[in-house]
Amino acid sequence: MLFFGHRFLQSPKFYHVFDIDSILTTPPSSTLYVEFEEKNLDIIAYLQENEISFALKVKNVTEVAYAEALNADYIVVENSLAKTAQKIAENYLFDAKILAHIENEKEIEELVLLGIDGVICPSAVVKVTVQ
């Protein structure tokens, strides 16, 4: 299981970007975090064109499929969608890893038992703003 932002384990950060300009302020070779929304398709296209690693936060099954088709490295879901997303990823042999967003360490046990690829804690996501 992958752990991002867990207090016991060192892990890379995800940089939450809101526009293309903010990408330029992120550290080299970092993984970017984008919410799947139509208004962010330009950001996603930029990431793909420049072969930048990224995670897509999705809200439903259709967006899970879009995230894989858009070549996201990670697909971030809420716990309520984690089991279904993982089953879809295994059925279609996704390259992306499914990460469940957690707020509390007590959620980890259930996700381990469900076979979810990994978890992402809030501390793993750094919001990037251009000033």
Account of the protein in words:
- It is a single chain.
- By secondary structure, this protein is α/β, with parallel strands linked by helices.
- Helix content is 32%, strand content 24%.
- Helix 1 links the parallel strand 2 and strand 3.
- The protein starts with a strand and ends with a strand.
| Oligomerization category of the chains in this entry | single chain
Strand order of the largest sheet: 1-7-6-5-4-3-2-8
DSSP strand (E) fraction? 15-25%
Number of helices: 5
Low-confidence blocks of residues: none
Structural class: alpha/beta
Helix fraction, binned, reads 25-40%
Mean pLDDT: 96
Rounded to the nearest angstrom, the distance between the terminal CA atoms is 37 Å
Order of helices and strands: EEHEHEHEHEHEE
**Shape type:** globular
**What is the strand tally?**
8
Global Rg: 14 Å
| Major sheet attributes | 8 strands, parallel
Outline of this structure?
This protein is of the alpha/beta class. The protein contains five helices and eight strands, in the order ββαβαβαβαβαββ.
